[in-house]
Amino acid sequence: MPSADDDLGPQHLAEPRRTVTAEPRDRSPEHAEPSRFIPHVQGLRAIAVLAVVLYHFWPGRFPGGYVGVDIFFVISGFLITSHLMRELTATGTVRLGQFWARRARRLLPASLLVLLFCALVAMSPYLTPTSALPNEVREILASTFYVENWYLALNSADYLNHSGDPTTVQHYWSLSLEEQFYVMWPLLMLLAAWIGVKWFRGSRRRAVIVTLAVVSVVSFAFCVVFTLTNPAPAYFVTFGRMWQFGIGAMVALVPMLRIRNAIGSFVLGWAGILVLLYVVFTFDAQTPFPGYAAAVPTLGAAAVIMASNHERWWYPTRVLAIRPAQFVGNISYSLYLWHWPLIIIAPSVPFWGLTIYHRLALLALCFVLAWLTKKFVEDPARGWKVLTSRPARVTLWSSLGAMVLVAGVAGAAWAVNAGTYTAGVKALQDLRENPPECFGAASVLDPTCADTDFADTILPAAGFAGVDRPTSPECFVQLNDARPVSCTFGSDDPDAPRVALIGDSHAYQLLSTFESMAEENGWQLVTYFKGACPWNTTPLATPGAFGAACTEWRDSMSAELADADIDAVFTAALATTPYSSDGYPSSHDAAVAGYREAWSDMLDRGIPVITVVDNPVWETDPNKCLRTRAEAAACDGERSAVLVADDPLRDAASGLDRATLLDFTDVYCGQDVCWPVVGGANIYRDQDHVTVTFADTLKPWYSSAIEDALASRDQ
């Protein structure tokens, strides 16, 4: 997370003098010493913020851009440690109140401004889905009080795989983590300095280096282990990231790590930049991160900082000091704050979308807002005499008051919309219990419903479709988890037919529908789900721990199925899953062969397999359009753009004995376009998963296919 400090941007690294002159009350002794500006670190800040922003705008083109945050952690560790060590050396202590007050004056004004903007946006049902309001308000509150990273960690948010519905303030997790660093790091250094005086013959620097090195090593070990065992929360947990600040601290504290030799500095600096560019273009959502992988961008950033020779124009230190890089580095804090809320809000703005032209215009707007915020909010707040001329506690209490004010506006956003939210929850419950006649898929598939007209009906409402999802997340395995988790629903009768539902999230989206089918038909339903991991033997094209976990899950799940008493199997999968070609002419051919091989054991045992052609996949959630358009037809998508023409499931099941293929393409799409609403039913809860409400309208056809399969097994 980029810092807003001028003493966190322009860097001051001269050796301290032994005498300290009196400073004004608003000046911390860390600035009592002469300093030397090092602009290439500000240029590195520009690389970091551009990596994050471009990743959020074009995740497919800059898949590893999320490492920009890791670069910021290294920079902050380097700068803050430099300042604190200089003050410790000069005065023997750190004036914590002044230190924290200065951080507050530099960080909070812009941060709270953006949070206030997000709270106001949350009040509008046109810009924020009503169903998302509770989580939006909770995250604004968590971000206001700098615990957003822990909120996300405790809720197992999946930052890299974009699971769930991100709020406008999700990016505040890194700012929260940095603020926690600002609180803990000076305390840790003070403790180390006290130990140095008491037991290391007064060598504060040596004690600080040893202490921070130990903390960094332990933190890195924790990060690696936690990423392997709990990858989603590992991304956000504070102690799992402290080692990255520690790497920057070591560069600040150990003089020999700042390379002034011309050749060494040239090679080290350019090598660091190339490593960062390599990571931005090659890491992706499936890279186990942070873990071992985070060491690559962390060390790359450290290498750039370590390069200290700037004699020639082609040296990396001089290239990073050019005016455009300095400009982006200067506005990096505000640019980071503004870009994400605008990306989340933009698709909901009338007559706006996320085409290439919209994205470029939005990117330009982000830069304009960042520059304006820097000029009229960040810079003036730093020297506001009302605060700088008074004791540090005045700044700290004022900061707390401002935070409470923003929290109050967020609470008001909830109060204004609470009635609508409650009504929406009730309407969704009533819809589940008493759906209209000829609703949804029936309007297309049932001949008796041919003349039914639902006019402008959209159920559930676009503001509530996002929460219309299965309610058994414990049955769904994600990320690097390879456990063959199984859940059982329906009849307890040992003689009841046993139906297995297997696959990725596109199988999981049918869970609630199949659960009610099992109850109604007297079946026992057994489930196996893993995110982005279809029931297929062909390896995924995604390398690393995620692909390995998928393979392991498949093997374990298949072993359990081999010993299970199953009467029929239903499977579904995302059509755009990336498969390895695995020796076949194409990845499509490999996927088809992998499905057939996965099903072969069931089919050889006479157990029928039913599958379904995948639903369309949209570029963005159609509900964002539905909330702002008067007619649902305005949100139709071109069939060629949203429907996968060669779904491998279709080819795998076609002509295969005892395999049944269901194809509801004509329900989703006409000849040229696909619809977000059919027969009054809102089809999608996000860009590619269907609502439980719509899946329920297909229940008669799912039930018929399974009953036919069970009957054929008895013959």
TrEMBL record:
Domain of life: Bacteria
Residue numbers spanned by region Disordered: 1-34
Keyword line: Acyltransferase, Membrane, Transferase, Transmembrane, Transmembrane helix
Protein name: Acyltransferase family protein
Biased composition (Basic and acidic residues): 14-34
Segments passing through the bilayer: 64-85, 106-127, 182-200, 207-228, 234-254, 266-283, 289-307, 327-350, 356-373, 394-416
InterPro entries cross-referenced by the UniProt entry: Acyl_transf_3_dom, Acyltransferase_3, SGNH
Keyword S-adenosyl-L-methionine on entry: no
A GO term, aspect molecular function: acyltransferase activity
Domain SGNH: 485-700
Keyword Transcription regulation: no
Signal peptide per UniProt: none
Domain Acyltransferase: 42-373
